[in-house]
Design goal:
With 59 residues, the chain is an all-alpha fold. It has a domain at 14-51. The protein is 56% helix and 0% strand. It is built from 2 helices and no strands. The radius of gyration is 11 Å and the shape is globular.
């Protein structure tokens, strides 16, 4: 899976992506594994696109 959302795909509502982020953090117990960190970054990019903002990835 690409870490970047497909621009031609239908964007999910911010509330849906936000809930997925919350669920990820709850499931992880506040400490993300490397795979969960990758998923979190993907969700942040998707959230920013749905919210009409941008996210600058950490270096």
């Amino acid at each position: 899976m690409s870490p970047h959302p497909n621009p031609s795909a239908v964007a999910r509502p911010v509330s849906v992506v936000n809930e997925e982020i919350r669920t990820l953090w709850q499931r992880a117990g506040g400490l993300l594994s490397p795979d969960e960190e990758t998923e979190y970054r993907r969700l942040l990019v998707e959230w920013a696109a749905a919210a009409g903002t941008s996210v600058r990835p950490a270096a």
